[in-house]
């Protein structure tokens, strides 16, 4: 039992940390910084525990929770995501008189879900982890509760989210029944015998639909732009990254591990979804003049690129999963960075950022514009940034897989060229247009600056020296 | 000492240093940038001397493990061909920086930082022997050029710069897929990632016929857009017209050569079968580019656009020479690359000098310019005759050798292309006549004392180019000798394995 506790220590720390955040808020109701400090301390401890567990393969909860490098990698990525969000959000929320403590606690709960999701080896814990991760997301989307846009986005997100969870759950239950076991690897073994039935087809269809909702693949993406645009900007940053990383872990566990024997069935579907997702995401992003909405659609496009890795993994290429994991890390840093930049521009309540508001920013705030450029170049996939290497990694896996995956790789790079247009257009406004009148107020406190800097360091470091992360990823998959 | 790394990263380090200089002192920034580029130039002359002494195919090799999981290494090396192009780059870089002293008056610091980063990217492309590393530098070149055109360019700069980037990006991204496919096929055959991205290890090992064809097609598209070959040339006139003078110079002088170099160094040695399959198409497109570029140049009304189209025509000789696969043709192609780099750069500098005074490039408004500024007119005439291909100046040797090579390969092609040498004389001399001779036009007259002759600084930017044009015109063997070994290696590696 004590061994169990030790294995579960990171998860427990996160949950205890979340509760401690709430308590600290009760004790010091007028200090926004205390809960953030408590949360960061909990995150630090979690990170240390995760690193410590990186080499082990201890299991807990009767074998349904397995610690090890995979959880360590995901957990640390989650810790980075939550930390950066916590650094960039307080100033923004403070200016609008929204509380910070609840954000910190909610994010920690979601992180707990993500860790559980990463560690799980069976369907039940998988679903629990998923829900623990996404339900905080619904709350966060409606964080600006007096803002009708935020409420609308949250309601959409909640309704479609729970709807898709129900579909997914139904599929999981049927799969369990067909395979006779809830263990992910057990399902793979059971299905490997070539067993097919109508029930299995139903399970596959339901799981595919439910998962497509979770990752916001076209045509199940309709909730994203509204949910993203309505939420407070730093929270949008989190929503576009955190739940997406978790959803791809779900995909890896369900499709690449459990449903691997059915790869021939789901790969064609995934290829079509991926191609549609990146193409539509990019084409619609082209037409946006609101920067936040543009980033929302661009995040849909990135879902498509990530799916390329899943397809390659389904075709038996371990590099596919490694590529997805590397991509999630790169995407987390660059996208959070882009949203941190946007947060800095929206210091005043009610500020919305149109492309034209960015005009001439490079002249007045050269450092801020430079950081934004790094994130945008990375999102475009220009070397030597993280985004370039991430894209290369999934494309390499797809080329290795051959067949339809290679065609998907070509579609992906052509999409990258389309995406270059709207990312570079932002740079056009930053540097090549005359300053806008009235000029945008840039609010950069020390915390926001730290968040921006962390994201930028991640974006550049992953591009210049990807080897440590590749090794971590490869090690995470070695077991 | 890792001299090649030093050369590549000296401009980048300089750019970092300049970032800390105060923006309020633009002249300090200007001279710092000039200093950095001159140091890089001197260093590059050093390697030129060392190439022969070192022997072997590539001198000054450096190889460090970088991303070992995929066998990606930091592998640099230089031979006669890349050495010549490196020196062309470092030479044009300091000339461009010096030529920007006057014209660039806004955001001076950002400009020179961009320019030095651009230099690092270009040098990296020429010196990389690892496909992945090469690709990274190839892409890095895009960003500063995008900014240089987009920030310091003319009225339609944003349209031009986005067109430039998107065109180049489409080609290069498909090349990325081809690079990855090549690396993977190496891994699949040998069972190891070692050398999967290494040019030297990969040459002559790609047996898969599909990869030969598709790989060549993808590489060729990327390089054809860069050269640019017809019909991928439409970004070039826009980019040239909108770019600031130094941007046009570096674009014509070096960036277009990245494409020609890519064919010789990467596309053909890696995929000889694919290259032979596509050779008739490439030759046909080259001839079209040569003729079409010249014809379109005749009707241009804007000076810069005229020279831009003449570039399309001249660069057609480069691709034509390469795809003859014989020594004369390839020698000529490389000569043409270097000479075009010297001559067209000079012409763009001269157009820029004129523009500084008139703020106009409309040929119809000019006339009789020689009356007021004889030195300027004489220099313009010198570069113009070099561009026409006057024997004794360097432009002649390259085109002549290309025609000789293509005559061996296909006399029809040579005949059609020779005809263009007359067209070149037509559009250039006709332009010169309208701009410089006759009575002075009302427009130029109206400028009064603003229409000054060239300054000593401007002469300093043109003199090295002019001197080299004469030297290489009289003794082209200096150049052909320096890259003879590269050409031999290229011709050996370009032999189709299928055809044997």
Q: Specify Rg of chain A, calculated over alpha carbons.
A: 21 Å
Treating each run of at least 4 consecutive H or I residues as one helix, how many helices of chain B?
21
Helix content estimate of chain A: over 70%
The termini of chain A sit apart by: 24 Å
Secondary structural class of chain B: mainly alpha
Please outline the major beta sheet of chain A.
Answer: 2 strands, antiparallel
Count up the helices of chain A: 20
H/E element sequence of chain A: HHHEEHHHHHHHHHHHHHHHHH
Shape of chain A: globular
How many domains, in number, for the residues of chain A? Answer: 1
State the helicity of chain B in percent bands. Answer: over 70%
Strand order within the widest beta sheet of chain B: 1-2
- Give the overall form of chain B: globular
Distance between the termini of chain B: 43 Å
Beta-strand fraction estimate of chain A: under 5%
Give the helix/strand class of chain A.
mainly alpha
Number of strands of chain A: 2
Short description:
Chain A is mainly α. Chain A is 78% helix and 1% strand. A two-stranded antiparallel ribbon of chain B has the order 1-2.
Q: Can you offer a commentary on this structure?
A:
The complex is a heterodimer of chains A (479) and B (500). Chain A has 479 residues and is mainly α. Chain A contains 20 helices and 2 strands. Chain A has one domain (2-478). Chain A has helices at residues 2-7, 9-27, 33-53, 69-95, 101-119, 123-141, 148-179, 184-192, 198-215, 223-230, 233-258, 263-286, 291-314, 318-345, 361-364, 366-380, 386-401, 404-432, 446-464, 467-478; strands at 59-60, 65-66. A two-stranded antiparallel ribbon of chain A has the order 1-2. In chain A, helix 12 runs antiparallel to helix 13 (291-314) and helix 14 packs antiparallel against helix 16. The mean pLDDT of chain A is 89. Chain B has helices at residues 3-19, 26-54, 80-99, 108-127, 131-152, 157-190, 199-202, 209-226, 235-242, 245-270, 272-298, 303-322, 327-358, 369-372, 374-388, 394-409, 411-436, 442-447, 456-474, 477-482, 484-493, and strands at residues 59-67, 72-78. Chain B has a two-stranded antiparallel ribbon. In chain B, helix 10 runs parallel beside helix 12. The mean pLDDT of chain B is 89. Chain B is built from 21 helices and 2 strands. Chain B has a domain at 271-493. By secondary structure, chain B is mostly helical. The chains are: A mainly alpha (479), B mainly alpha (500). Chains A and B meet through helix 17, helix 18 and helix 20 of A and helix 5 and helix 6 of B.
